[in-house]
Amino acid sequence: MLPEHERDALIEKYQLLEKFQELGIDQLTKAIAQQFGVLGATISIVTESRVWFKSKYGILINEIEFDQSLSRELLKSDKEYMVIEHLSLDETYSHHPLQTNYGLEFFAAAPLFIEGSLAFGALCVFGTEPLKPNQKQLKALTSIAGQISQLIKNEVSEREELAHDFGKESF
């Protein structure tokens, strides 16, 4: 578990709020939503003040306030994934803004990592109907989260190499 201020420093260090050129990330975001048969999915970068969607499928907004985030709960833990099958019936989440304001009933997420075990965000899937995911879906969630983490690591490495080759801090 990474403290929020350290996660923000990591996000800034690797410029993770910048839009990457990797189209594969958007395809993976869509694929996980389709795998679960739900409304949408996001690749969420979690900072102390907001959650920014590096990639999104099925929604129009680009970010939410930190206090509206469900994925922040996952990043506070060491869990492989988080699943809330029925938000309105869950004692902890029944009054959550994503449930009361947007009608979300289902939410699942897997952490995204950089530098080994440092989680900076999550791959999230969500829908307006309750859902009990099967093992195949949960395996897909964690597997695709791993693929996305690797794509982001590759992009960061390529950017660092270009900056080094051209003698610039950031490229």
Question: Layout of helices and strands, plus pairs?
Answer:
Blueprint: H1 4-13, H2 23-36, E1 40-46, E2 50-57, E3 63-65, H3 71-75, E4 82-84, H4 97-100, E5 106-114, E6 118-127, H5 135-165
Antiparallel strand pairs: 1-2, 1-6, 2-3, 4-5, 5-6
What does this structure look like?
The chain has helices spanning 4-13, 23-36, 71-75, 97-100, 135-165; strands at residues 40-46, 50-57, 63-65, 82-84, 106-114, 118-127. It starts with a helix and ends in a 6-residue tail after the last helix. Helix content is 37%, strand content 23%. The longest helix is centred in the C-terminal third of the chain and has 31 residues, at 135-165. Strands 3-2-1-6-5-4 form a 6-stranded antiparallel sheet. Helix 2 (23-36) packs antiparallel against helix 5. The radius of gyration is 16 Å and the shape is globular. It is of the alpha+beta class. It has 5 helices and 6 strands. The mean pLDDT is 85.
